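Sample intake sheet
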Amino acid sequence: LSLAPLKVAVLSSSTDHFFKEILGFWLARVGFDASFLESDYGVIHQLVVDENSALYAFEPDVVWLFTGWRDVKLALAPGLSREEEDAQIETNVADLESLWEILQERTSAQIIQNNADAPDFRGLGNFDSIAPWGRTRALASYNAELSRRIPSGVTIFDLDYVSSLYGKCRWFDDCHWYNSKLPFTLDAAGEVAYQGARLMAAVKGKAKKCLVLDLD
C-alpha cells in the first residue's frame, strides 16, 4: 500500500487502548502505517517530564496529549469572581505550556493538544454559561485561552466540536467512565479517530491541495 511510517504517542488521562486500533485504521486510510506507544493512562506528566521515559525512547513523530474536561482543575464555588476564574484558567493553561516546552526541547514531534469537551450536564441550568462559577462558562473561557496561547508546533484538536458533532447526550457515559475510565462512549471512537487522523494527515503534509488557474 506504500504507507508512510508514523510513530504516534497518545498520552491520555483516560483509557485509550480500544481507540488506538481504530485510529490506526483511519491513519492507514490517509496514507500512514501507524505504530503506537503503549502506556498506562494517567501518567502524562510522568512520561513527559522524565527524560528517560518510554516516550523519548519511542522517538514519536506525533505526540497527542489526550485530555478532557475532567483534567481542567476548577474550584467553582458560588460567588467566584471573574478574576478568580481567570487565575484558575491561567494555572491550567500554564501547566500544559510547560509540557509543550519540554516536548519541544526533547523531540521534533508534532504536538496535538485536546481542548475541553464540555459535559452534557449544567448544574446551574442556563446560568451555567453566564456565571463565573458556572462550569460551562469556565470551560469555554479555558478553551478560548488555550487557543490564544498555542505556540508554533502545537495544534489544537477540537474535542469539544467532535463531541457536539457526535451528540453530547450520546458522547458521555458515566457508567463507562467510573468502570474503566473511558473518555467517551465506545460508539464515538470512530468519529474521534477519523477526525484525529485527518488532523495528523494535515500537520504531516498529507492534506490535498488544488491550484486553479484561469487561462483565458
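Comment: Residues 79 and 96 are 27 Å apart (CA to CA). The chain has nine helices and five strands.
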